Automatic annotation (TrEMBL):
Keywords: DNA damage, DNA repair, Magnesium, Metal-binding, Nucleotidyltransferase, Nucleus, Transferase. It catalyses: DNA(n) + a 2'-deoxyribonucleoside 5'-triphosphate = DNA(n+1) + diphosphate. Residues 5-199 form the UmuC domain. GO terms for cellular component: nucleus; replication fork; site of double-strand break. This is DNA polymerase eta. Its EC number is 2.7.7.7. It holds the Pfam family IMS. Its cofactor is Mn(2+); Mg(2+). InterPro entries: DNA/RNA_pol_sf, DNA_pol_Y-fam_lit_finger_sf, DNA_pol_Y-fam_little_finger, DNA_polymerase_eta, Rev_trsase/Diguanyl_cyclase, UmuC. GO terms for biological process: DNA repair; error-prone translesion synthesis; response to UV. Its main location: nucleus.
Length: 478
DNA sequence: CATTTAGATACC
DNA sequence: GGTATCTAA
């Protein structure tokens, strides 16, 4: 697993003066200093946690630098981090099969590259090992500070290693090379966890941040850290808590005592077997060859008390979300020649009198038509459809256009079923045209071609179509 | 008053 | 297509 960290994107390329400073990235800051989305290693040392608000972080570490996530269209815009991730992926993909795991993390299968390297040059005869590779942290090595690089060098050269460990050593060398290449081409530093399988690499990846600021102080061994089940991939959430609370398991070692049957009994056949295996270091998970996301989305959540009570505000936010989504779709089309086919809208409603009553609307989908104006129009229609069902199912009556304190607390638009335009299609316009012949209703035939041209026009040339507010069946009032 | 945003997946 | 849930930065 190879990852770049949001804070370093900002630090190294956008605001170099932050280098080496305890830094954190927050989204928004008007309420308690904003929510932290990432914390630099330096800030971790002061006890700054991601669960804190900006103000709390300042209490713990007064000199902390709070960097704000860019706000566009009234919402946090993570594009620069997503794009930074893409830059890195394109470099990593040269060396092996890549799977984009999150906005800034990638799994990279280096098996073939490592095998090839080993076949060419036996490690023992490797003359020069790059400084970068000597910075590696090897979990089986005792890191007591004595000649770290010497120890690493010895480990990498070891002739008594089995084939798998030699592959691992090659992996470390290749990753060192890649990290330098990434730095050269993008100015980003990245971290990597390298193991025999996917699950292990993510443990190591998390272990790395720990190592970088605690191990040197000798507080806990890296083995002990890596052993904590909560640090393992997929165990950072409810499943991990359940292991701890229901079975009393805190470390992977403690998980070993349970039979496969016992684990299956409690967690189901699949999860049970999966747990039994990972406790033994067995992970059959393949690195998927997926460089690009399967969906794009834009979501806005507002705190309960600020719930949207007027259809006009819902419309406003829907427009902002659709604008952002349309931008993603446009980039995807331009850069990857991919087209999304489904638009989905999710909404969540909240009743102020009862903090427990967060209810999702039925989500609604429709064919996705390109052009932000069309997307806005369709999204609003989907919202209306969801709202009608929602009001019906909750027996909320319109008492003079008043809805008893109900308001919208979350809106999201998602584009999915994203497929590559078949290669050989001579023009994108032609492709759009051809697609529509098959699945467009006849009433849209007249303006089809012009409408589909919209996403390809330079941004800023589109115009809002008039929204027919008077035709809306529902209206929220304060 | 209050994590927010993003994305994947399993199941019907 | 739609729902619900999970994970994680």
């Amino acid at each position: 697993l190879i990852g770049i960290c949001f804070v370093y994107v900002v630090e190294q390329r956008e605001q170099p003066h932050l280098r080496g400073q305890p830094t954190t990235v927050v989204q928004y800051n008007s309420w308690k200093g904003g929510g932290l989305i990432v914390v630099s290693y330096e800030a971790c040392k002061y006890g700054v946690k991601r669960s804190m608000r900006g103000d709390e972080a300042k209490q713990v570490c007064p000199q902390i630098q709070l960097v704000q996530v860019l706000v566009a269209r009234g919402k946090a815009d993570l594009s620069i981090y997503r794009n930074a991730g893409s830059e890195v992926v394109s470099i990593l993909a040269r060396k092996g099969r890549c799977e984009r795991a999150s906005i800034d993390e990638v799994y990279l299968d280096l098996t073939d590259a490592a095998e090839a390297m080993l076949a060419e040059t036996p490690l023992e005869s490797l003359e020069k090992i790059d400084e970068e590779a000597l910075k590696s942290h090897i979990l089986s090595l005792n890191e007591d500070g004595s000649d770290h690089k010497g120890n690493v060098k010895e480990w990498l050269h070891r002739s008594d290693a089995d084939h798998h460990d030699k592959l691992l050593a090659c992996g470390a060398l290749i990753v060192a090379e890649l990290r330098m290449q990434v730095l050269k081409e993008t100015e980003f530093t990245c971290s990597a966890g390298i193991t025999h399988n996917k699950v292990g690499s993510s443990v190591q990846f998390r272990c790395l941040s720990f190592i970088l600021h605690h191990l040197m102080e000798g507080k806990l061994s890296s083995f002990a850290y890596a052993g904590q089940t909560s640090k393992w991939k997929q165990l950072g959430g409810k499943l991990g808590s359940s292991l701890q609370i229901d079975l009393g398991v805190n470390t992977v070692g403690e998980l070993l005592q349970f039979s496969e049957e016992k684990l299956q009994e409690r967690y189901g056949v699949n999860t049970g077997t999966w747990l039994w295996n990972i406790a033994r270091g067995i992970s059959g998970e393949e690195v998927e060859g997926r460089l690009l996301p399967n969906s794009h989305g834009s979501r806005k959540t507002v705190p309960g008390p600020r719930a949207l009570k007027k259809i006009a505000s819902v419309e406003h936010w829907l427009n902002e979300l659709c604008e952002e989504l349309s931008e993603y779709l446009h980039s995807d089309l331009e850069q990857n020649k991919r087209i999304a086919h489904t638009l989905t809208l999710h909404a969540r409603a909240f009743k102020s009198s009862d903090s427990e009553s967060q209810k999702n609307f039925p989500s609604k989908s429709c064919p996705l038509r390109y052009g932000s104006t069309k997307i806005k129009e369709d999204a609003l229609n989907l919202f209306q459809a969801g709202l009608c069902e929602f009001l019906g199912s909750h027996r909320i009556k319109a008492q003079g256009s008043h809805y008893n304190g109900w308001g919208i607390t979350s809106l999201s638009v998602t584009a999915s079923k994203i497929v590559a335009i078949p290669s050989g299609t001579c023009s994108i316009m032609k492709y759009f045209h051809g697609q529509d012949q098959s699945n467009c209703s006849s009433k849209q035939a007249n303006d089809r071609f012009v409408a589909e041209a919209a996403p390809l026009s330079p941004s800023g040339t589109e115009r809002y179509s008039e929204l027919h507010t008077t035709e809306l069946p529902i209206e929220f009032r304060d």
